[in-house]
């Protein structure tokens, strides 16, 4: 196995661990679904899966993770805008 292939595998496995950890922490109530940390864990994990699945030619998986990352980034933008909006009194 080449060094490049090993790096791609490490990226894929790291992405899997990150997304699973995010889900476990969410399920245990340690993270909020609409929180920055949970969403960034998903976006970064999806990016790792995009690299891994794209490299390995698993196009459906790559597309799924592009959508997954897009949902996460969209949610992050909603959270950011909500926190920047002035509070009505």
From TrEMBL:
Organism: Sphingopyxis soli
Transmembrane segments: 6-25, 37-55, 61-80
Stretch forming the signal peptide: none
UniProt KW keywords: Membrane, Transmembrane, Transmembrane helix
Domain CBU-0592-like stretches: 9-83
Domain of life according to the entry: Bacteria
Statement: the UniProt record of this protein carries the keyword Transferase: no
InterPro entries found in the cross-reference section: CBU_0592-like (IPR058058)
Name this polypeptide is given: CBU-0592-like domain-containing protein
């Amino acid at each position: 196995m080449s060094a490049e292939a090993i790096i791609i595998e490490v990226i894929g496995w790291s992405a899997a661990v990150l997304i699973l950890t995010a889900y476990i922490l969410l399920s245990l109530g340690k993270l909020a679904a609409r929180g920055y940390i949970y969403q960034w864990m998903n976006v970064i994990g999806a990016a790792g899966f995009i690299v891994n699945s794209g490299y390995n030619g698993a196009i459906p998986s790559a597309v799924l993770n592009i959508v997954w990352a897009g949902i996460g980034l969209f949610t992050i933008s909603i959270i950011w805008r909500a926190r920047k909006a002035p509070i009505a009194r």
